[in-house]
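Notes, p. 3: input format for complexes.
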Amino acid sequence: MEKLQAIRGMNDILPEEALEWEYLESTFYRVVKSFGYREIRFPVVEQTQLFKRSIGAVTDIVEKEMYSFDDRNGDNVSLRPEGTAGCVRAADQHGLLYNQHQRLWYQGPMFRHERPQKGRYRQFHQFGVEAFGMSGPAIDVEVIQISAMLWKDLGLTQYLKLEINNIGSAQDRKKYAQALTAYLSGKVDELDDDARNRMHSNPMRILDSKNEAVRSALVDAPKLCDFVNQDSKTHFRKLKELLTALEVQFVENNRLVRGLDYYNNCVYEWTTDTLGAQGAVCGGGRYDGLVRQLGGRETEACGFAIGIERLVLMLRSLNKIPASALRPTDVYLVVVGGSLESEAFSVAEAIREKYPHLGVICHCAGGKFNSQMKRAYTSGARVAVVLERDGEAIGPLMEGKIRSLDDGAESIVTEIDNIPEKLGKFFGNSEG
Ligand code: AMP
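Output follows (432 residues plus adenosine monophosphate):
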């Protein structure tokens, strides 16, 4: 029978890769917790309306990329294409936003029906951070600082560039869109079908057209920065001053507009040239109008989302994951000869108790010494503990051996009860 395969663009994460993910995840948890952020979990499936009303009905994500379907009740639902909308929905529904400051983070799978390629998948994963109830630029900077701290802890700072832009308020952009449409009306002949279609619905999207003819038609187009209101400008100026004071390097890119409609004022992206075409690793900004737009009260907000797959690709290609994080286990118990299972289990337990952070595998499948040792090597353990007794011996086992698998050094022979203590030579004597 034909074997079934995973769906295109949806990846299995196998045990070796999962160790890379765990390393990244644990670093992320540590960083967000060090800033006092708390985790929130919300469903993978939401009403389609939620995404239409937040991300915007005339965006690539909502128009072309969502996994939407009628469920068995006939309700139109979608797999979440990003986390902010669900986070806002959940936080508001449970009263977390009213007159409060909230610092939240989330993590999980997102779904977009894009054309799969390296760094771009149909199921991908994001870490996100969202802060609510704070209006000044300090909170934008705090959120950016979280990402900067993460890059630092991962050893990636030098490979990532922060681009920022001020896209003003929704009203500013509305005026700008009108001006852009008016400008483009005089250039219709130079546009392609795509641009002509978008000219009235969402002209700003034409700005990232890859078509050379369209790009040259845009050369003298009005610029968004000329439409941005004074308050936004002041906010942005202070934000830049704070970033500079913190020595977070950035470049201004006034062409940076994000593919989601809910942003206002400061938006940004961290990009790298180590990944080829899919160089955006983290995107974020302020979205003060969104809570209201989804039916809540006016609430200032800002946040970012990081693409986990892209970060893992980066860490892997730059060799930034410490070997210790990639070691699947530490100690392998080789158990040769009759009826030693219960001794082996108690030795393994004693080791686990003394070194709770170590992985201890107890060979559970019998077999000869050599074949068990092979498994010990392929397990990735640093040390094998050998319990061995020949077939005729009776009575309790008195001694075991400890063998380093890293350098093949001589074995240590020791009394069974002393094995945990003697492992201190390899793993340090502390329990930590
Ligand atoms: P966005 O939600 O579009 O602002 O994306 C935030 C981050 O998620 C991007 O910077 C990417 O790192 C990541 N990302 C977005 N779409 C994909 C995708 N289809 N596959 C993998 N990562 C993605």
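The two ends are 50 Å apart (CA to CA).
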